[in-house]
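To fix ideas, we now present one chain and its tokenised fold:
***
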Amino acid sequence: MSQNVTARDDASAAAPRSAVVLLSGGLDSATTLAIARSAGFECHAISFDYGQRHRAELEAARRVAAQLGVASHRWATIDLRVFGGSALTDDIAVPKDRDESEMAGGIPVTYVPARNTVFLAYALGLAEVIGSGDIFIGVNAVDYSGYPDCRPAFIKAFEAMANVATKAGVEGHALRIHTPLIDWSKTAIIQRGLKLGVDYSLTHSCYDPQPDASGQPTRACGHCDACLLRKRAFESLGMNDPVLEA
């Protein structure tokens, strides 16, 4: 796990290192991509269609990748609906209008079993293929989500596994998983992203998008945990969430 992000081992390096960036299309992953780019990495984004009910985030990932600029953008299709067990992949209601104490009261039903483990495994495979030693993921351990696969212990354990489970790792080319947002507040994340030029109107975080004028489920509901966390963070900066204004 890495907090201080640098793209080069020394000042004389002739070219930036490549990095794999997990890009969901949400606020956190967009900011993470911007941070990786600002550190000088050549970014290769990877997004996942895993059967999520909020598939509008996939189009958001395309928009963010185009706005911030990536060296490549790959897509992986994984049907996590075969397991279900989550409000994002099963017929389970998404919690609405919860306060922060309720959000912090345990692992919510929007947790998708093993999702980040699966996603990081794909990112690890891509990193090996393109010769990258760096993976960026926008996990956050202080946004009241309670997700076990967003915690430092999980990232540390996965990084250790990656370095004994890959050809690159056993040949001495250590892989690092960067989690620049892991201990940031949502307000701090937005502040950093704005400084780096992230256009948050292009992102999508809502867990339960509602039909837009064309009938497609792309409009943020404004009431799920993801929407409320964003809304409150923007308000703390004296701003309105541009997605909810749309």
User: Anything to note?
Assistant: The chain is about 35% helix and 10% strand. Confidence is low (pLDDT under 50) at residues 8-13.
